[in-house]
Amino acid sequence: MFAVDTFLTRQEFSSIQMVAVTPPAGKLYRSMPGDDKSEIVSAGVPSARKDFLREMGVPVVSAHMPFKVANGSSQPAWSDVAEAFGVLGGGFSLCVQSILMACDAGEVEIGERVVAASADTAMAAIASRTELFKSAQHGLLVEHIVCRPRRFDLSKRGHSSVASMGRFQVSMESSREEESVFIDVPPQIEEPQRLILGPSDSDAEDD
User: pLDDT of 135-147, one tens digit each?
Assistant: First the structure.
């Protein structure tokens, strides 16, 4: 709702089309990942809010996260991809999956330039569907990373050095807003006209 209030209500952003992406509706997860005593909540967007978003022109995509391995599967390759992406921060994999999900649902065209924002990361990318993810001709491409976390407390929360990464050192008391840092100057290309909002880190936790 913050993004809707911030972007869709302002004239300078009137050309931006927004897509909301969530894990499967009804998926249960802990409100505080890693805390077995935290409240169990349900993923998805409430019906009233979904109706409001649709009225504002924001489609809502709720589907299986592409890198999540189905229970009983003997092929963990996709989860390995998600874990590898963790070296760029916990939100990197969520951004990539959000783009794939939006494209799979037909809300984004293959080859369309989009911006994805999820958890603590944002990126500009060329969209692709899941089955074409690694294609040399039609696969997903990350053009540049707009921002990512200074401290990797999502993907590498147990790492001994994540709280003191060179000149980007921050204190443990710093706010979430201070934990992302611009790391790339946007190239001089046509501005994307679609913004994909992915799930938060807690929404996307493993079952």
Answer: 999 999 999 999 8
* 66-70, 136-140, 198-202: least confident range: 198-202
**Radius of gyration in angstroms for the set of CA atoms belonging to the chain, rounded to a whole number:** 17
> Which amino acid is present at 62?
S
Q: Give me 91's structure tokens.
A: 């939100």
Boundaries of every domain in the chain: 16-62+76-197
Instruction: Tell whether the model's pLDDT for residue 190 goes beyond 90.
Output: no
Instruction: Say whether pTM exceeds 0.90.
Output: no
Burial class (CB in 10 A: 0-12, 13-18, 19+), 9: exposed
* Side-chain half-sphere exposure of 111, counting CA atoms within 13 A: 3
Contact 47, 33 (CB under 8 A): no
